[in-house]
Design goal:
The protein is of the alpha/beta class and 390 residues long. 33% of the residues lie in helices and 8% in strands. The two termini are 28 Å apart. It comes from Sporothrix stenoceras.
Length: 390
């Protein structure tokens, strides 16, 4: 998955060559802040919400659903309903627990109807052939850096452009380090020879904002935006009324990104020191593999911990040796060791404790439905869809 000449050195820098792979770990001093402790009132509201969610047996169809996908709560749903997930929705609703419960169910319905877990690397691949979205490195608080390069737009507006962003946000979540639950969005509106207007359409912008604010609450840690032309300023003014006030506070325009991201993990196109060249044939399978392996490791720990609703994300990420309720007779998963510093190649996945796998099991052999490493969908089935850098 890339020759030694394209691998990162210990600090993730590219002085040994131009990097073409994702960076698996933050720098040693890029550490997430400690999680805030709950007040007594917040803890009570969380326990109420947890009890409600644990009682759910079915997911209802949304009122706007074109196809009824209601049905029993699945393991995918339970896996998604972590302690931190419930807390994100409580914070997003200003600790109104009934509103949080309503929004959680709405997101479960949306995830089914939108087909979030069915989006595959193969289906999304044409959207990212020019590298208009890249997950590369981490900021100084361990957030995954999600780069958007609108000037590299290569497709016409279509549903797949929005699916592209959803898919990439899901991959950010897969590779987030323990202790961190937000991302850093870095947007460069620099024009290119083929594209001088880098502002997305108003309808696409509104749809993306609605999805992110409604179904990914409390996920944006910081947004750093540079090279903002006047036409894009106009776009931001138009969509500002649709942006949550707390989100607006996280937007930083034309600031030095080195304040927020270690220079050795900040792409030179964003004025950092990281020499990175987007090669789709190298980067895309490497990102797919890294994300799939990290998700497989989390899923294995979730199963070992008894498939609990309200499981701790730090346990799933390997930071904690014990979850909320370790299954009887099951040895808790050991914390994940950091990937070897001298390579950017993803670590091997943890084996799923089913008796059918071993420590040498490949990602493909895990047969976890939501890994989506391969795509069996015929190309004709996706011919009507396309993508955006949002």
């Amino acid at each position: 998955m890339g020759s030694p000449e394209t691998q990162s050195e210990k600090d993730g820098s590219a002085s040994a060559g131009i990097l073409k792979l994702p960076i698996p770990q933050p720098t040693a001093d890029s550490v997430p802040p400690p999680r805030a402790e709950l007040t007594a009132d917040q803890a009570t509201k969380y326990e109420w919400l947890l009890e409600q969610v644990q009682s759910w047996t079915t997911v209802a169809a949304s009122k706007d659903s074109k196809e009824d996908k209601s049905g029993p709560l699945t393991d995918d749903d339970r896996f998604w309903l972590t302690r931190e997930c419930l807390l994100r929705y409580l914070r997003a609703t200003k600790w109104h627990e009934k509103d949080a419960a309503k929004r959680l169910m709405e997101t479960l319905s949306w995830r089914r109807e939108y087909g979030v877990d069915a989006l595959t690397a193969h289906h999304i691949s044409p959207e990212n052939e020019t590298g208009k979205q890249v997950l590369l490195g981490y900021d100084k608080q361990g957030r995954v850096c999600h780069y958007l390069n609108p000037g590299r737009q290569n497709t016409d507006p279509s549903p797949r452009q929005v699916q592209h962003l959803v898919y990439m946000v899901e991959r950010v979540i897969d590779i987030m380090p323990a202790g961190q639950e937000t991302l850093a969005l870095l947007i460069n509106f620099k024009t290119s020879k083929s594209r001088t207007n880098t502002a997305p359409g108003i309808s696409t912008g509104r749809e993306v904002l609605h999805i992110l604010q409604t179904h990914y609450p409390e996920r944006l840690g910081r947004a750093l935006i540079i090279n903002v032309p006047w036409v894009v300023w106009g776009f931001f003014k138009l969509i500002t009324p649709f942006i949550d006030p707390l989100t607006r506070e996280k937007l930083k325009f034309n600031e030095d990104m080195n304040q927020y991201v270690p220079a050795e993990q900040l792409w030179t196109e964003f004025l950092g020191k990281l020499e990175f060249d987007y090669d789709h044939d190298v980067y895309w399978p490497a990102l797919t593999k890294l994300a799939a392996e990290r998700r497989a490791e989390r899923l294995a720990r979730w199963e070992a911990g008894g498939k609990q609703i309200g499981e701790l994300e730090d346990f799933l990420a390997g930071k904690l040796a014990q979850g909320v309720k370790p299954a009887e007779g099951v040895v808790a998963a050991a914390p994940v060791a950091a990937a070897p510093a001298e390579t950017a190649t993803p670590a091997a996945p943890a084996a799923v404790e089913t008796g059918e796998t071993t420590a040498n099991t490949s990602v493909e052999d895990l047969k976890v439905a939501d890994l989506k490493v391969t795509d069996e969908t015929p190309a004709a089935a996706t011919e009507t869809q396309t993508a955006t850098a949002a």
